[in-house]
Amino acid sequence: LYSSSAPRMVNNYKRTSSPRSPTNSGELFTPAHEENVRFIHDTWQCVLRDIRSPQSSERKDRGPQEYVEKNPNPNLNSFTPVDLSDLRKRNTQDSKKS
Hints:
The protein is mainly alpha-helical. Helices cover 37% and strands 6% of the residues. The protein has a two-stranded antiparallel ribbon with strand order 1-2. It is extended and about 55 Å long. The N and C termini lie far apart (39 Å). The model has no long low-confidence stretch (mean pLDDT 75).
């Protein structure tokens, strides 16, 4: 188990299944993969909405809560998050050039 000094969000949202969405990139994903991606996206949107809600300070025990490591891992002090969408765009552009 890795520890990090970066805050993490903890929530209690329920997973619901929804119909399969078409992909427009030409990539084939399994229905399970698409459901997982949709679940993560939808849940994260709920977390962001709840955090921005004016009532969020009143519901600290029920809404999303920020997790902070009690003992941060010093090896991660220089960690820089990666923008995955930017990385994917660059990889897509690189593959088109070759």
